[in-house]
Amino acid sequence: MATQDHGKNVEILEIGEVSIPESTISVNPCALGEGPYYEEETGELRFVDIIKREIHTVSLEEGPGSHKAVNLEDSVGITTDIEGRSGEYIVAAKRGFAVFNEATRQLTYVKTYEDEPEMAERMRFNDGAVDSRGRFWGTMNDFHVDEVQARYRLSLGPDLTLHRIIESVSIPNGMGWSPDDKTIYFTDSPTRGIFAYNYDADSGEISNKRVFFQLCDKEGVPDGCTIDTEGHLWVAVHEGSRVIRISPQGEVVSQITLPAWKVTCPTFGGPDFNEFITTAGVDAGEKTPNGSRDHGNMFRA
Fold first, then answer.
1. Sheet with 193-200: strands ordered across
2. Quick one: average pLDDT of 264-272?
3. What burial class does residue 189 get, using C-beta atoms within 10 Å of its C-beta: 0-12 exposed, 13-18 middle, 19+ buried?
4. CA-CA distance, 202 to 124, in Å (whole number)?
5. I need a surface site. Which of 85, 122, 140, 274 has the fewest CB within 10 A?
């Protein structure tokens, strides 16, 4: 049903450190920019603003002047194409999984939390990904929900059934799979940890949880990620002004630095397979590092 992140088809070389001095796709700043996704058929980059309940699109060929934003009745955290269908795509939204129609600009839910009504109010989607078998993974608590309540990672199968995979995590965030499909990586942001599990692609089952990577307290918070064909994770560091590239052995081998402080999610796309990076805005009066700017904008490396 859903298609995978294009980042898995990108060859990346060791680059040391790259610095992006300013945002290269300037749009109205997002409050919480997330979910960048390159749609190969149209050549458009999509991303969302979870707080403002918007889906943004921009043509990479035409540039920032082609930018459009659609306001929705519910927040959306991630989008992905539907194989064999154009003009609409599937999204992980406030009340479940829905199809967004570009012509009508409407969401049509295909799976909600109807079997677990207590989840409907307290859940929203923050990040997610699609595995090699078309399962769409994602979800977390909404902003207003007390931090002590349980969170979940849900998986929507091609048969439109929901599966509860991981429970009692803090803020489920970036995730992805190794190129051989044998390992799944999962970020629990407040713990500053990225965890690895053995993965059975046929069944979708996970096992053997272990710590893959850990940031120190003053280094920022791991957020969204994507994975290249060499099996390296590219991880956004929220409140860290950078994207780090982590080897399959769990070592940082390179990084991209940005002027924005709250970096949220990277993806690969476009004819040159650039890396596109979303960021979050800052609140009025919020203290930020000296020299930081362009908060909530989209960057291209």
1. 172-177, 183-188, 193-200, 205-214
2. 92
3. buried
4. 27
5. 85
